[in-house]
């Protein structure tokens, strides 16, 4: 129980130390980012104070990704912030900040998520308008909790092995440590049966004092027994002469004819003699002392069925030319998200028809979403795939669809590209790892 308690406390302590270490590393990383935000603070082409070249971590561009930056004035409010904040703001605590001194906070972010925030107060130069701004970079601490939980999960089996080793070592230690006491018990049993007289000194240093004390006790008991034996012998000899005298008196009474009295005295004398011999006899005795899989055709049918029921989709012609057996190594819901964004985009720009095609190229599957829309100029393809990039500002889109599709594809080891870009044809291409045949697994 003590070993388990100690290892349990060790697990809690190590998990806490790991969490503190990871939090310090996270704070150091956030400090680097907040320094970058401060360094890029300048006036833009429109004269507005902003972060010209924000940190290039893609999470800053993904809405509610859990990683955010913000620059706010005193008391002007928010000056600039990352796209990941969307329409939210980081509520910073009232704090007396020294210039360029880093402060760490735990604050609530979008959706009530707990964030670790690193903040710096910076005095602006006169060129930037003077005054002070507060720059902060914050990250969701759920990743910290997940890392701590993973560390604890990896630690517990190791501590379990240590517990087994320590328990086995403890059992061996107890067995070896108590072995001399077993020898003491054996020697005491031999003394009790008369096979031995003393324990002796053939014991470890820790047990030898105990054996010496027991032997001293046995010596004292032997001396007491010897003294008792001597006293019993003296007592017996002291009774012997009076008994002989009594026996002589009995004989004289018989000679005088006092047989009744002689018989009574003889019986008493015999009883006394037997008691003495019994005690003498007693005094002479020696006392001893990776399984994700999605069917492309089925997912394409599902997505087309949904988009076809929209007002725009109902006016278009649809075709699904994906082989039924073609499968990619991706979750069906993620594939539906990718295709949904691409098919919705195609439906928005198509003139008459949208076609989904699929084929296998070695270990890769290739999906094509083809529409007969106007296409995209080659120089603007990269802008279309950028998060928030919108080439058609007349529609209701957010500019996130193609970027989200690209992010999901990259997360599964794939990619999204656009082309060809000639007028009259537009193709969105999704490449994903091919799923293994279940029969071969």
From TrEMBL:
Limits of the HAMP domain: 175-226
Catalytic activity field: ATP + protein L-histidine = ADP + protein N-phospho-L-histidine
Pfam families noted in UniProt: HATPase_c (PF02518)
Sequence ranges assigned to domain Histidine kinase in this UniProt record: 234-436
One GO BP annotation of this record: phosphorelay signal transduction system
Top-level taxon of origin: Bacteria
Coiled-coil segments: none
Gene Ontology CC terms: plasma membrane
E.C. numbers: 2.7.13.3
Annotated GO MF terms: protein histidine kinase activity
Keyword Cytoplasm: no
Broad class of the protein's primary localization: membrane
The keyword Membrane is assigned to this record: yes
Compartment(s): Membrane
Keywords from the named record: Kinase, Membrane, Phosphoprotein, Transferase, Transmembrane, Transmembrane helix, Two-component regulatory system
Enzyme class, broadest EC rank: transferase
Full protein name: histidine kinase
Organism (species): Blastochloris viridis (Rhodopseudomonas viridis)
